[in-house]
Amino acid sequence: MRDIKCVAALASRFSMLPGVGKKTALRYAYAVIDMSERDVDAFCEALKDVKQNVKLCKVCGNFTEDDVCEICKARSAKQICVVAYPKDVIAVENTGAFDGAYHVLHGTLSPMNNRTPDDLNIKSLLARLNGVEEVIIATNPDVEGEATAVYLARLIKPMGVKVTRIAQGISMGSELEYADSITLTQALGRRTAL
Amino acid sequence: MRDIKCVAALASRFSMLPGVGKKTALRYAYAVIDMSERDVDAFCEALKDVKQNVKLCKVCGNFTEDDVCEICKARSAKQICVVAYPKDVIAVENTGAFDGAYHVLHGTLSPMNNRTPDDLNIKSLLARLNGVEEVIIATNPDVEGEATAVYLARLIKPMGVKVTRIAQGISMGSELEYADSITLTQALGRRTAL
Question: Distance (Å, rounded) from C-alpha B86 to C-alpha A32?
Fold first, then answer.
């Protein structure tokens, strides 16, 4: 039996979501049949609301419903944590260990994928450095993230602002035995005094 | 940082889907921001399409876009496989071991939950038994599924129709939806007379 056409169509929409395979998408689509019409309408409204109302903060580039995001409104920008994507802001916020401001680049430098500095949200970062004491670069510890960090450091340090990079090493709770050798080499090289 | 209001609202909609927790729902909601407006509109259309166009087959009670479902249109109803839910039709179809028709009860008897025979799609099953050679009862092998099977057998056997039950190759307490095709095929093959 083929799946019902409109159910299959909805499933293909669900499968555009991250981590949703064919089977899960179909399961979601069938679940929609059991929802009330009211719930389905509300679902649609919520989808459109997000697409229409979420924009980028004029200051930091993070997602917001206003012109300027809540973090930029509420916090001091003496320390700015630079991340690649909005989801990284959420990750850092969830630690509760940082109470400064953010700057979202919306990508990393990648010559392979034709992503140059002009494609990233860098100009507005340079424009807000007046009075900033430290820029913490929290891009991923991979080739592109490292390249972006080095590029930004070269750009910002001459402006008299301290530039730091989040520490790299063995992650908490992991086992030395299974760490890859690059990580382990870096953890050894960057060892700190106890 | 609180999540953006409309994103949180969309996440709460996603969390109504089966098996979607708070974190996954939020991940889906943020992914919608990155979709094109066109894709979001198409998503909405697909949601509403499913809710508006999927109805129950007048003959068997399975989901369909027409008055009568594709299976009822195409296949002989000499053998009718009775299941509790539409998702169970999909499970049996996926085995490829059955080429008869289905009947979907939309539930099982459950005195605990006040579900009596009147709440199930039983009348239309009795109405279509003329010329039927065998009714295979494929409800879940749990208390409610067994009770429903026994009830139906008592109802149908006096009408001169053979009533069988899928074999208890499926372990007690498990659910049809998650059974692997081989187990389900064996259960069909070893069905026993009631």
Answer: 13
ipTM, 2 dp: 0.77
Q: Is B79 helix (H, G, I), strand (E, B) or coil?
A: strand
CA distance B89 to A107: 46
Q: What is the pLDDT of residues A35-63, one digit of tens each?
A: 999 999 999 999 999 999 999 999 999 99
| CA-based nearest residue in chain B for residue A48 | B40
B48 min Cα distance to partner chain A (Å): 7
Q: The CATH number of the domain where B168 resides is what?
A: 3.40.1360.10
Q: Are residues B130 and B113 in the same domain?
A: yes
pTM of the model: 0.76
How close, in Å, is residue B91 to chain A by CA atoms?
Answer: 11
Question: H/E element holding A29?
Answer: helix A22-34
- Which residue does chain B place closest to A94, by CA atoms? B1
Say whether A75 sits in a helix, a strand or coil: coil
Residue located via tokens 């392979």 = A112
